[in-house]
Each structure stands twice: as C-alpha cells, then as structure tokens.
Specification:
Layout: E1 2-5, H1 10-22, E2 28-31, H2 45-59, E3 65-76, E4 79-89, E5 94-98, E6 102-103, H3 106-113, H4 118-126, H5 136-141, H6 148-164
Helix pairs in contact: 1-6, 3-4
Length: 168
C-alpha cells in the first residue's frame, strides 16, 4: 500500500505508519510538504478539519491513500482545547477522524488567544526546541501518558475506517 502524508513532519508520518501497521498493513508511507490552506494556528474544529482535508487532497498523487493531519485549538466547554483532525482520501472518497482533545492550561490558552502559536508557546514553557516534532503538547500536558504521535495515530485511525473495513 502506497500512502502519502501531506506533511514533512516525521511525527505525522510515523503516526500514519503505525495506524496502518496496527490494522495489519505494511504500508510504504512518504511525507510531502503541502500547504494546509488554513492559518498557521488553526482556530476551531471547522478550520482544523479543513486543514486536514486540504492536506489530504493536496498530497494525493496516484497513491492508494493520501492522509492529511492538522492540529489546532478550539474553544470548548469554557476553555481552549488542543484538537487533532485527520482526513484520508483515495482520490474519490474522503473520510475524517479526530484524536483526543486536551484542555489547555489557562496561562497557555491566554497566550494562544493573544495570537501566539501553540508550538512556540510550548517550546517556551518547556524550555525545549521543536516540541511539536517530539512529545508535542499532548505529551507535556498528560505527563507522557500519551504523546503527539499516539494522539495523531488515533485521529488517523478514525479517518481510515472506511478504507480498511467493510462496515461503511
């Protein structure tokens, strides 16, 4: 199975590889940088899902499946939440999935609401570089119980359902 991920981020590529491997596939997964067509810091579930869809469609190039993954923030239940959306296409059909959502601490949410991107805020808070390519905000905010890759893998798994089962 030849799969293209609409991102050069190795965490996103590994998330797709592991999602498909857990379903019994031995995929050849390639990451390709594409434009998400949304804000650098997607705001809201609709914009984050749109970014995932745009990435999947832009990445599709004669492969079996193309995957788009987008992380964003969304106001929910009186707070600002980290959200992860995925889209998968075979060139004809398109399906969506969502990973776990995590409420951002108030101090982090305030900085994001003021216009900063979550990735650099997390780098600053943790005193590290490239947190988004490592544990991600998900890892930091759950004490390592989940990390960015596993959170994204679950979003991808939800979007893969129609392509890997006959239940749809």
């Amino acid at each position: 199975m030849n799969v293209i991920v609409g991102s050069g981020n190795p965490v996103k590529v590994r998330a797709v590889e592991r999602a498909l491997a857990s379903a019994g596939y031995e995929p050849h997964v390639t990451g390709v940088a594409v434009d998400s067509g949304v804000s650098e810091q997607p705001y809201g579930d609709a914009e984050t899902r749109e970014g995932a869809r745009n990435r999947a469609r832009a990445a599709f190039d004669g492969c079996d499946l193309a995957v788009g993954i987008e992380g964003g923030v969304a106001p929910r239940d009186g707070g600002l939440w980290l959200v992860m959306h995925a889209a998968v296409t075979d060139g004809d059909d398109l399906a969506y999935g969502e990973g776990p959502a995590l409420r951002l601490p108030d101090a982090i949410a305030a900085r994001v609401e003021a216009g900063e991107e979550l990735g650099p805020v997390m780098d600053d808070v943790l005193g590290e570089d490239d947190v988004a390519k490592k544990q991600g905000a998900a890892g930091a905010l759950t004490g390592g119980i989940i990390d960015r890759e596993s959170a994204l893998r679950h979003a991808v798994a939800g979007a893969l359902g129609p392509f890997v089962t006959e239940h749809y």
